[in-house]
């Protein structure tokens, strides 16, 4: 596929390595334009490096860009991938199969939210520009679908206990701020009840 033609403007941010552009002016206003992207091994390795994972053994992004109204477009696709990441506990390789629906809406009259509207979290709608980069959408969708803390089978996070000699170690339940309040209340009220 084509190399990325866009620059981020920020030297510290790496450009998305996978690009497949569709010029909006060339898209049909009557019927969907279909795509089926399967990047080769070299490109999958570049995407894996960009995402900070070990490997991508399979990646396919298939769907369509369809006209929506007179000036807008909608992208609907399915992302399938097989990725390898290091286990968050043991660093052993963890292989995950991903299958995710992906949807985007591109609006010609898009306006950036202002003030309180910024709190509205809708990452599926964006401004329609001269090109729709399906490759970028695929990489962004894959980054969102990756397990944040992959775990190898049987991997257990060890619990460390720190305590002074002769005292009981703190447990998770001891650190919960309201866990012992009911028991403490009952204990404080007991002498008064007995006195009556």
Question: Can you summarize this structure?
Answer:
This protein has 196 residues and is α+β, with helices and mostly antiparallel strands. It has helices at residues 41-51, 134-145, 172-175, 181-195; strands spanning 21-23, 33-37, 55-68, 72-86, 93-107, 125-127, 131-133. The protein has a domain at 21-145.
Class inferred from helices and paired strands: alpha+beta
Q: What's the overall geometry?
A: flat
Helicity range of the residues? 10-25%
Count of beta strands: 7
Please describe the topology of this protein.
Layout: E1 21-23, E2 33-37, H1 41-51, E3 55-68, E4 72-86, E5 93-107, E6 125-127, E7 131-133, H2 134-145, H3 172-175, H4 181-195
Parallel strand pairs: 5-6
Antiparallel strand pairs: 1-7, 2-3, 3-4, 4-5
Describe the 3D structure:
The protein contains 4 helices and 7 strands. By secondary structure, it is of the alpha+beta class. It is flat and about 75 Å long.
Key structural traits:
196 residues; alpha+beta; five-stranded mixed β-sheet; 30% strand
